[in-house]
Write a structure and sequence with these properties.
Elements (H helix, E strand, L loop, with lengths): L1 E3 H7 L6 H11 L2 E6 L6 E13 L7 E6 L6 E5 L9 E11 L5 E2 L3 E3 L2 E3 L1 E4 L42 E5 L10 H11 L13 E6 L15 E8 L8 H9 L7 H13 L3 E5 L9 E4 L5 E3 L5 E3 L5 E4 L4 E4 L3 E2 L12 E7 L2 H11 L4 H8 L6 H16 L2 E4 L2 E4 L6 E6 H8 L5 H11 L2 E5 L2 E6 L9 H12 L20 H15 L3 E2 L5 E2 L1 H4 L23 E2 L4 H13 L5 E11 L9 E11 L16 H14 L6 E5 L6 E11 L2 E9 L1 H6 L6 E7 H6 L16 E10 L4 H11 L4 E10 L8 E10 L8 H19 L2 E2 L1
Parallel strand pairs: 12-22, 27-30
Antiparallel strand pairs: 1-11, 2-11, 3-4, 3-6, 4-5, 6-7, 6-10, 8-9, 13-21, 13-22, 13-23, 14-21, 15-18, 16-17, 18-19, 19-20, 24-26, 25-26, 28-29, 30-31, 31-35, 32-33, 33-34, 34-35, 36-38, 36-39, 37-38
């Protein structure tokens, strides 16, 4: 909302520097983004009268103009505007003038196609006006000033450029600050002044009755308040200059006197008004309702909008003519041929308006106000003021009476507060008289009984509903800077991380120590990506009702898809070796009826390319399954999980390579998976190199029993090592062999390590060769060969009997 300082002073006797005013508003109500001074940096822009205008001898589109700027003799100026003609007064930049935003362009004498030009005849956008607020009539040419403009005088007052404008950043809870009346009431309370508002008096013509029918079945859920006024014989033309200045200084493009009045009233009251051409409405009917299946509406840009049955529209007897509370349609818009109009003032349901606006990505000044709420008690007053102003600017006759389709009795809210409560919450010692004075300045009526206040809040402050809202009003008018600073009371406690926080931090630290970089991906993704890489397929996605885009339509149920997007981004920027991990929440619903998803913490990692870069002593090797498995083994070991870690090959994950994927079990409980992303899936993500990933449920790992960390002294007695090579069937897993060796190796067996795997020449078909190193050691005495040999023979015997292994 742009606040015009000149307009503000029409309703409030205030004379403070605009910078000081803006800072006061920011400390008290809402923030401001900027202070705009349209004439800042400008100089030597004067009113010039074009005395003559003739064709340039060396250019088809240029004209040589003689311009009177109040000097001793006219200036010769070359102009290329198509609407340049003699007898008109225009914005003239003379030699040395500064134009553009903050005067960033200097005008100098110059020759154009051999003819000297001593200045410039300017369009509005050339002197700093935003192109979007320049009336269409003047967008392709120079701007004509009023005929009574004084020749040679500065142009700034004629264009409203000496105004100062505060660009307010209005929060959703303060919709009243999107109107001049709301701002004036707020500043009147802050500066303890009385605003100058007068109620509109409509000059109705009793000879003109409203020959207009409205269906009485207008949906009260769509528009609990819906009122209309009819005007006949209007003359649609350009608005008076004062009205155009009000609009373009507030960032709105002037169009014609009828539409400009509706925008002006919206800025003044915060009440959007819409004008329909009465003669273009089928059956002379208007009704606010939900759209029907298959209906469309054509907007003012001539684009057809396909409507959803949840959309709210305003329709005539045949079809929708506007999106209710959002924007008008082309069919019944007001143009230069319009003679009879109907003005609509309504209170549309804010949620329905917001849903319609978001669904079609149409955000307007009107929808912004309806979404935040409007003053329901001021709908009729705004409609009367709009009708009277259209009457003044178009000489149209206002038909007698308001057509009321739906109405709503608006009662002011009465809230009870206590003086002790106010002081306890604010930490102050305010007297009863001080609080009474604050409520009086706000325009709130109160009844006092002892320390109790029964405060009557007017409808224009619909944001105030409970006692704490009144505490805030007292605090801001008393002055936040006047509230004493105090330290919190109570016993002091030492700060400490919770066990959960410690686990999260340790998890990140371990993976960072393994050389992986921490990535953070969006929690929102596509529905398809949400269902990928799921260990369980019985979960349902959580969709957003109104997503920002199709790429952010659902909450994620895995972390791997986000990491694949990160790898694709890196590879697109020539980073071929990527090692990333992410620790974050996933969102799962176990049934369609579950309203809110369950949030679970997961941890995932991805490696693509090589873990090590090329160097002088070795070449980089592509990452493989076992390198990532080593990182995962180290991670689980450092997380002190007590259960036995198992990897079981699986082909149940369609997004993973069926021969290079395993489910991860800890203590017999499934906690995640590890493997290579299927090449087809990697291609879908635009990942060009093989990518190996794992994802674990950190939620499950945290719930598992943990190993107690105890110091073990370095053994004083030597170890004995034995190697064994086995010829086994290919379907026998390494883990099953290790489990058997540990089971039969006795208490002195401290380590089993696979150091060689061979298949190929000299190995029979369907067989493989595995070689293991076994370490025996006792912490209390030196082992003898006979003890180790006995345990080693037992291991060999069981391997032969259980796996039919051949000892090589």
């Amino acid at each position: 909302m742009r606040l015009s300082y000149d307009w503000l002073k029409q309703y409030l006797d205030i004379n403070v520097p605009v910078k000081q005013l803006a800072e006061k508003i920011e400390r008290t109500v809402v923030e401001y983004d900027d202070i705009i001074e349209p004439s800042k940096g400008m100089k030597k822009l004067v009113v010039g009268k074009i005395l003559s205008c003739k064709k340039h001898p060396n250019a088809d589109r240029l004209k040589i103009c003689q311009v009177d700027v109040g000097a001793d003799k006219p200036l010769q100026i070359i102009c290329g505007a198509p609407n340049c003609r003699a007898g008109k007064k225009a914005i003239t930049a003379i030699h040395g003038a500064r134009v553009g935003v903050n005067g960033n362009v200097k005008i100098k004498r110059a020759k154009m196609r051999g003819v000297r030009s001593n200045g410039m005849l300017c369009a509005l956008d050339e002197i700093g006006f935003d192109k979007d607020v320049v009336p269409k009539k003047w967008q392709d040419g120079i701007y004509y000033l009023p005929d009574d403009a004084k020749i040679g005088a500065p142009v700034y007052d004629y264009l409203g450029m000496n105004d100062q404008i505060i660009d307010l950043s209005v929060t959703p809870n303060r919709g009243d600050m999107l109107s001049m009346t709301g701002i004036v009431h707020e500043l009147a309370a802050i500066y303890n002044k009385k605003p100058h508002f007068t109620k509109p008096s409509v000059n109705e013509d009793p000879t003109h009755q409203a020959k207009f029918e409205v269906k009485s079945k207008a949906d009260p859920k769509v528009a609990p308040i819906y009122k209309l006024r009819v005007l006949n014989n209007v003359d649609v033309h350009d608005s008076p200059l004062w009205l155009q200045i009000r609009l373009w200084n507030c960032g709105i493009q002037p169009k014609n006197n009828v539409i400009d009045v509706t925008n002006y009233i919206m800025l003044k009251y915060g009440q959007p008004i819409h004008a329909f051409d009465l003669d273009k409405l089928e059956g002379h009917e208007l009704v606010a309702r939900h759209a029907k299946q298959g209906e469309t509406v054509v907007n003012n840009d001539k684009k057809s909008i396909k409507l959803d049955p949840k959309d709210v529209v305003v329709a005539d007897a045949k079809q929708p003519v506007a999106l209710a509370g959002v924007s008008g349609g082309l069919k019944a818009n007001v143009d230069s041929k319009t003679k009879n109009i109907v003005l609509e003032a309504a209170a549309f349901d804010p949620i329905m308006v917001r849903m319609t606006s978001r669904r079609h990505s149409i955000h307007t000044e009107s929808s912004k106000r309806f979404e935040r709420g409007i003053n329901h008690a001021g709908v009729g007053e705004a409609l009367d003021d709009a009708a009277q102003l259209v009457n003044q600017t178009s000489k149209g006759q206002v038909a007698s009476g308001i057509i009321t389709v739906n109405d709503q009795k608006v009662e002011p809210k009465v809230i009870t507060v206590y003086l002790d409560s106010i002081n306890n919450v604010l930490g102050t010692h305010l007297s009863k008289d001080t609080v009474v004075d604050i409520f009086r300045r706000l325009g709130f009526k109160d009844q006092i009984t002892g320390n109790q206040f029964r405060v009557t809040v007017p409808a224009r402050r619909w944001d105030i509903t409970i006692a704490p809202d009144l505490y805030e009003e007292v605090a801001k008018l008393y002055g936040y800077n006047n509230i004493p600073s105090t330290l919190p009371g109570g016993p002091l406690t030492s700060g400490e991380l919770s066990p959960k926080q410690k686990t999260y931090r340790k998890s990140r630290r371990v993976l960072e120590g393994a050389g992986l970089s921490h990535a953070i991906s969006y929690s929102l993704t596509t529905v398809k990506k949400a269902h990928m890489f799921m260990s369980d397929d019985h979960f349902y996605e959580t969709k957003l009702l109104y997503p920002m885009s199709v790429d952010h339509a659902a909450l994620r149920m895995n972390l791997i898809s986000g990491l694949l997007d990160d790898v694709a981004y890196n590879q697109a920027h020539k980073v071929t070796n990527t090692t990333l991990f992410e620790q974050g929440r996933v969102f799962l619903r176990s049934s369609k009826d579950q309203q809110k998803p369950t949030e679970l913490m997961h941890v995932a990692a991805i490696v693509s390319g090589s873990l090590d870069a090329d160097s002088w002593y070795q070449k980089a090797k592509p990452v493989d399954f076992y390198q990532l498995k080593g990182i995962l083994d180290m991670y689980l070991r450092e997380m002190d999980v007590a259960g036995t870690v198992e990897y079981k090959a699986t082909d149940k994950h369609p997004e993973m390579h069926p021969g290079r994927t395993a489910d991860v079990y800890v203590g017999g409980q499934h906690v995640g998976m590890i493997g290579e992303v299927h090449p087809k899936v990697a291609h879908e993500f635009n990942v060009s190199k093989p990518a190996y990933v794992f994802e674990l449920s950190l939620h499950k790992l945290m719930a598992m029993p943990k190993r107690s960390q105890q110091y073990q002294a370095v053994p004083k007695y030597p170890a004995i090592s034995r190697d064994i090579a086995l010829l086994l069937d290919k379907d026998i897993s390494n883990q099953s062999v290790i489990d058997l060796i540990k089971q039969r190796g006795g208490k002195d067996l401290t380590q089993v390590k696979l150091f060689d795997v061979y298949t190929g020449k000299h190995v029979p078909a369907g067989k493989k060769s595995l070689a293991y190193n076994l370490v025996f050691q006792n912490p209390t005495h030196t082992l003898v060969e006979s003890t180790v040999n006995k345990a080693f023979d037992k291991i060999q015997k069981d391997l032969k009997s259980k796996f039919n292994a051949q000892i090589r």
